[in-house]
Specification:
Blueprint: H1 10-27, E1 42-47, H2 51-61, E2 68-75, H3 78-92, E3 103-105, H4 109-115, E4 122-125, H5 129-141, E5 145-148
Parallel strand pairs: 1-2, 1-4, 2-3, 4-5
Length: 152
Amino acid sequence: MDGEQSGLSRRGFAQRLGQVAAASTLATLNAPAVHGAEGNTIQFALVGAGGRGTGAVVDAMASKNGPLKLVAMADIFEDKLTRSHTALKNRIGEGMAVKDEHKFLGFDGYQKAMDVLRPGDVVILATPPAFRWPHFEYAIKKGLNVFMEKPV
């Protein structure tokens, strides 16, 4: 570069790349007939019901494509799961379709939440990175689309 500095810092590049990745993932919701289920409703599951996961669901549900429904949630902490469920019920209205029997607690909750979904549906992985790789592996085996943030 002959001594010239790029106008984009490493941090700026990483942030831009994350934004592009998130937009690309959500843009896949534009694909018509993701699956042939009745009504073509795209279902979501949230694994990791803290603030970042709750916010990711709100962002996803703001998409004009759909219909979209959150149908399952999982976390290892009951208070986080309850708090997130209540907040999402207030924020996304009809998009909240999580029945009590589809709220899962414990380290195997991610499997139970993903088992509610059909191939082609979406799982949002918002757990700490150390836990995410087995969640991602299970989602791929189930044929699910995955949204997760860096660093994984």
